């Protein structure tokens, strides 16, 4: 057989003519499977590669848009804002806690933070802790610049998987989202991604949201509470699931997203009480701020960062005062406004650089942190969604954000959640996280001896044992992105990533009904709380 065998790499390289398919048949048997099979079969062969869920989270922080002097000046401006301008609308409990530690209330009822108190909090706040999954394989190390990508969004709508229409999200949709995320290797945690519009009261919404998330996934769960009393109920649920309060504290598998500030420079009184209560109960707390550049914060990136940093530090100080051992995550997530319409521009280049700079400020204080990236403005999982998400998530990852929320599943500026997008974004996140991995440089990887042997022998590396070994460990293979040759793609029916992702979402939701809560414990929870998710909805029909 004298058919010439080509291997295409960009730029294209051709192996010499004497290397025929017959000669490579044995050596390329395993590698050839990956290229010659259909996308569906490649998904079934996923076990041939190291599962992404078991890969170490990359340590990044290479992207640094701010200089050391820039960060020092932003820090100084934030401290001046806290000490001289302060925040308004503090709740009585917030005022009491801050004044007892040296804070001061002005005549116009603004709460001021002395710089010495900020320094004490920054010195005392915990670093290098772990947010746990119910399954230890999903533990999240919150060490400097170690990156984990996940869901989020709190959207009021869902993109219907059957007809693509936008409709109000329900509790069952939220449960389905948790079940789907439970199977996606590169979505490392489940942050509540939608609001269950079929739940009438705030208490029932908070409790049922936590329940639906915790029954749907064994990954770390992030949820929210609208009142301090609801925090106690959620904590009680967690303690029951863990076996005791002490067992939960040893492995905290749920944390609270708390938006304690309403920019510019106002507290949300109820959210502050939630923050105080959560910290005192020992729940991990996400201290989040959401100023919009040009609307609720200055139109310049520097000014937006100074104000957002001040608002975030105010929440971190409050959490530390409530509990010096608090597990608190710095959550500055400034957003960009499209000044033509007043709407959010989550997919813009300005948003990407702003997010990276906010992450760099968290690293300035060496604080475990979270941010938003992936807030595409596109309404569907299309090319616009792809480039906007890839841009913002890549920059957040390269900047070294510990938690990148909203990185999967969100559409329409966080207004909708898409099951199809979850699956597509999981492929995207695998590539982004792989690109962020450090390059191993040592005698073995430099491979001088292997190069010498190969050029004097076979003249190619495809059959070398290390090539085959590293195929399994060093490469992330997408489950839905198509890598077939054009003729094979046509022969397989010209599949798109959307159609492949839709099939995966449908199959997963039809079959994956995890049992992370025992029937006995579930009966106990339903007796204690008004759980609205029907048991028959939680099992395969």
TrEMBL record:
Stretches the record annotates as Disordered: 33-65
GO molecular function: methyltransferase activity
Gene3D superfamilies tied to this protein: Trimethylamine methyltransferase-like
EC number of the protein: 2.1.1.-
Family: Belongs to the trimethylamine methyltransferase family.
Alphabetical UniProt keywords: Methyltransferase, Transferase
Top-rank lineage group of the source organism: Bacteria
Entry's Gene Ontology BP terms: methylation
Name by which UniProt lists this protein: Methyltransferase
A matching Pfam family: MTTB
Enzyme class: transferase
């Amino acid at each position: 057989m004298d058919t010439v065998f080509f291997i295409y790499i960009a730029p294209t390289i051709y192996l010499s003519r004497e290397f025929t398919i017959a000669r490579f048949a044995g050596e390329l048997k395993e590698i050839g499977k990956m290229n010659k099979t259909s996308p569906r079969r490649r998904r079934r062969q996923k076990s041939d590669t190291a599962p992404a869920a078991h890969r170490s989270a990359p340590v990044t922080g290479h992207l640094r848009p701010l200089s050391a002097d820039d960060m020092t000046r932003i820090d100084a401006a934030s401290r001046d804002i806290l000490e001289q301008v302060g925040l308004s609308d503090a709740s009585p409990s917030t005022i009491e806690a801050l004044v007892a530690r040296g804070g001061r209330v002005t005549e116009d009822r603004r709460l001021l933070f002395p710089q010495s108190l900020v320094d004490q909090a920054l010195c005392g706040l915990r670093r290098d802790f772990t947010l746990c999954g119910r399954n230890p394989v999903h533990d999240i190390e919150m060490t400097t610049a170690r990156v984990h990508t996940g869901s989020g969004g709190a959207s009021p709508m869902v993109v219907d998987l059957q007809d693509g229409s936008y409709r109000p999200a329900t509790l069952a949709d939220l449960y389905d989202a948790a079940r789907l995320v439970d199977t996606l290797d590169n979505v490392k945690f489940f942050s509540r991604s939608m609001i269950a519009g079929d739940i009438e009261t705030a208490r029932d919404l908070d409790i049922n949201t936590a329940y639906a998330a915790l029954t749907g996934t064994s990954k770390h769960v992030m949820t929210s509470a609208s009142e301090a009393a609801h925090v106690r109920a959620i904590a009680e649920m967690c303690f029951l699931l863990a076996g005791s309060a002490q067992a939960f504290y040893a492995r905290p598998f749920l944390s609270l997203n708390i938006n304690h500030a309403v920019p510019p420079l106002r507290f949300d009184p109820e959210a502050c009480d939630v923050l105080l209560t959560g910290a005192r109960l020992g729940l991990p707390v996400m201290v989040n701020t959401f100023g919009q550049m040009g609307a609720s914060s200055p139109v310049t990136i520097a000014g937006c960062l100074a104000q957002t940093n001040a608002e975030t530090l105010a929440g971190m100080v409050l959490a530390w005062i409530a509990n010096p051992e608090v597990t608190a995550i710095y959550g500055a997530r400034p957003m960009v406004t499209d000044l033509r319409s007043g709407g959010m521009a989550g997919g813009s280049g300005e948003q990407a650089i702003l997010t990276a700079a906010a992450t760099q400020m968290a690293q300035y204080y060496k604080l475990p942190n979270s941010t938003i990236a992936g807030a595409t403005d596109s309404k569907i999982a299309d090319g616009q969604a792809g480039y906007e998400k890839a841009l913002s998530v890549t920059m957040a990852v390269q900047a070294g954000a510990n938690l990148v929320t909203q990185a999967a599943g969100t559409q329409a500026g966080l207004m909708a959640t898409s099951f199809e997008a979850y699956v597509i974004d999981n492929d995207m996140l695998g590539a982004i996280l792989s690109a962020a991995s450090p390059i191993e440089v040592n005698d073995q990887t430099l491979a001088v001896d292997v190069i010498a042997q190969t050029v004097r022998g076979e003249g190619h590396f495809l059959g070398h044992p290390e090539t085959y070994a590293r195929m399994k460990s060093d490469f992330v293979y997408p489950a839905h992105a198509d890598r077939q040759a054009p003729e094979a793609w046509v022969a397989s029916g010209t599949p798109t990533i959307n159609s492949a992702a839709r099939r995966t979402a449908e199959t997963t939701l039809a079959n994956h009904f995890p049992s992370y809560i025992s029937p006995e414990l579930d009966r106990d929870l339903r007796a204690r709380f008004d759980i609205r998710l029907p048991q028959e909805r939680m099992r395969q029909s």
